[in-house]
Every structure is written in structure tokens, then in C-alpha cells.
Amino acid sequence: MTMTNLEIDKQTKIAACIEAMNACNKCYVSSLKEYDLASLWESMKYNKEAAEICSFAAAALSRGTVFEQEILALVVKACEQCANESEKFEHIHCQSSVEACRRCAEICSTLSLTV
After folding, report:
1. In this structure, what are the phi and psi dihedrals at residue 57, rounded to the nearest 5 degrees?
2. pLDDT higher at 6 or 51
3. Is 64 left (phi over 0), alpha (psi -120 to 50) or beta?
4. Which residue among 5, 80, 85, 110 is buried most deeply as judged by most CB within 10 Å?
5. Distance between CA atoms of 46 and 55, rounded to whole angstroms?
6. What is the pLDDT of residue 12?
């Protein structure tokens, strides 16, 4: 069975959310091990928020929520803010979070789930 463009679009968004969630969770946990923990505090908060929002979004999109556009708008906002804060740091885990969040925000803001 061949997937429709709509199904591919939805799967792309889910995959981007999962990738961002994983990168944000890794950044959060890795930041706990850094010596400059106080300077990373804002970044850690945004990484935790983005991870939780992306996790929720992936689950909601998977089940076909009627709130897709609202949830995706929140994903974009959370990922952009997380990337903006994390890019202030040169740690590999922070840069990975930046990349995944920027990619997720771009995918979730440009592809349309509506017919």
C-alpha cells in the first residue's frame, strides 16, 4: 500500500518532533553534568519544555488530533525558543539541540496537514 502525500507529511512531522524531543532530552541531561550549570539554566528549561511539547505533538499527530495546527504552532514556538537559547553555548549537546529544533520548527511550519 502506498502512502499519500498527506500521510508522508504527517510522518515527516512526527519524525521531526521525535528527533527534536530526543536531542532536547539529551541536551537537558548532558547539561546537568556541566560545570557551568548556572549559565545553562535557561537553556535547560527550554530544552525540557521543547522535549515535552514535541513528545505530546508526536503522540497527538499519531492519533489524528483535531488540534493539529494549534499543536504544531506550539511546537514551532517551543523549538525556535529552545534553539535560540541553546545556540548561546558551544557544547556539542547544545548544538545538536539547536540543529534538531531548527529542523523541527521548519518542518512543522512549512508542510501542511490540511487537504
Report:
1. -65, -45
2. 51
3. left
4. 85
5. 14
6. 96
Average pLDDT over residues 79-84: 98
Burial annotation 15-38 (CB, 10 A radius, 16+ → b, else e): ebbbbbbbbbbbbbebbeeeeeee
Map 28-86 to HEC letters.
Answer: HHHHCCCCCHHHHHHHHHHHHHHHHHHHHHHHHHHHCCCCHHHHHHHHHHHHHHHHHHH
C-alpha grid cell, residue 70 = 494549534
Least Cα distance to 101 among 30, 27, 37 occurs for 27
Task: Name, in order, each residue with C-beta under 8 angstroms of 82's C-beta and a sequence gap of 6 or more.
Answer: 24, 43, 46, 47, 49, 50, 97, 101
Look at residue 87 and give its three-state secondary structure.
coil
The CA distance from 78 to 82, in Å, is 6
pLDDT at 114 over 80: no
pTM of the model: 0.91
Provide φ and ψ at 91, rounded to 5°. -60, 145
For residue 3, the one-letter residue type is M
